[in-house]
Design goal:
single chain, alpha+beta, H-NOX domain, Arc Repressor Mutant, subunit A, 2 domains, 18 helices, 9% strand
């Protein structure tokens, strides 16, 4: 089953495309999408086509920050009823909790997690590329840009994150990132996410309206019954978040989903899947992204895929792809840049 994203994710696409010298109608058709999706934000469209559109638009326009440009004028209202529910929560913590709860209704290929590390908070976003592998830079930058825009709408228009972390390398032109995030965008990290103060999470929202929350909740619950995420989608999102931690066992996934392991096994079997096959599928997707499309050290890639040692990763890679990671990288022409040592994503490194 194809992963889906709400068509509202394409808000501002036409304006950004025209400003970049593109014909948005032609670009949509070429990506396999009808231009009418721009008028129907609640439609669900295939993630692969959404990603294809963003990547082609960035490539043809020469604008590496195309996705981020789309995020610059986003509003909570662009999330539909979920945006209404988020807007009227008592705190940012509550708003993010609702966003995580209803994320599958907005984008079935995105996972969101909030981690508290002392006085700091990491809001992680992880993306699944989909069945057809595609570069994820544009989708990642759009997602993190939207997150910062939403927080500014909830807290303060001038709010600045302490850091915005991207897995991918920096673009040649940083002007859009500097305009959007100030000096706080950093690249070649081990995760995609926003780092802010814990105090931001608990700041009170003076405009919170409990009556609107009840109304929005009713709308969403009615819609959720027809867009219920399958166990397969839930497991995929959770695996994607847990892999780099080295704790991606069925027990930990079941705990995150608040079910017992037998329930996970049974529900996956009903869809002809197993936990190990899903882990392997996601590892193959991430391996393609990090080995061929980046120059990240292979020891880091092994960790991001949940391997305790490079040797285990190399053996697995050879079985899956018929060659070593080094051979794949050499064939793709990726050359390791001389950069500073990688920054780990644990709490001691972000403070």
């Amino acid at each position: 089953m194809s992963l889906l994203v709400r068509a509202g994710a394409l808000t501002n696409y036409s304006e950004v495309a025209r400003a970049a010298g593109l014909d948005p109608v032609r670009m949509l058709f070429d990506a396999g999408l009808s231009p009418s999706v721009l008028r129907e934000p609640d439609l669900m469209i295939p993630v692969e086509r959404f990603g294809r559109l963003l990547q082609a638009s960035a490539t043809m326009s020469g604008n590496e920050s195309f996705g981020l440009c789309m995020a610059e004028s986003r509003l909570l209202s662009n999330l539909g009823a979920v945006g209404m529910l988020i807007r009227d929560q008592a705190t940012l913590r509550d708003s993010l909790g609702m966003l995580m709860r209803y994320q599958p209704m907005l984008n079935g290929a995105k996972s969101l997690a909030v981690e508290e590390c002392g006085d700091l908070v990491i809001i992680r976003e992880a993306l699944i590329a989909g069945k057809v592998h595609q570069p994820t830079r544009q989708r990642v930058e759009l997602a993190l840009g939207v997150m910062v825009r939403l927080i500014r709408q909830l807290l303060n228009p001038d709010w600045q994150p302490q850091r915005v972390c991207f897995e991918h390398p920096a673009p040649r032109d940083l002007s859009t990132h500097q305009r959007f995030f100030g000096p706080n965008a950093e690249f070649d990290w081990d995760f995609n996410g926003v780092i802010c103060s814990k105090a931001d999470l608990d700041a009170r929202n003076p405009g919170a309206d409990p009556a609107m929350v009840r109304y929005a909740q009713k709308l969403i619950d009615e819609a959720a019954r027809s867009h219920q995420a399958t166990m397969l989608e839930d497991v995929r999102r959770t695996i994607l978040l847990l892999l780099p931690s080295g704790r991606c066992s069925m027990e930990h996934v079941a705990e995150n989903l608040n079910v017992v392991c037998r329930t996970v096994q049974r529900r996956l079997a009903e869809q002809g899947q197993s936990f190990s096959s899903i882990v392997n599928e996601i590892r193959m997707e991430l391996a393609t992204r990090h080995v061929i499309e980046s120059d990240r050290p292979l020891t880091e890639v092994a960790t991001l895929l949940g391997f305790a040692a490079l040797s285990g990763f190399s053996r697995w890679y050879h079985v899956q792809f018929g060659c070593s990671p080094k051979e794949s990288r050499a064939a793709s022409g990726t050359v390791r840049r001389q950069t500073a040592p990688s920054r780990a994503s644990d709490a001691s490194q972000v403070s």
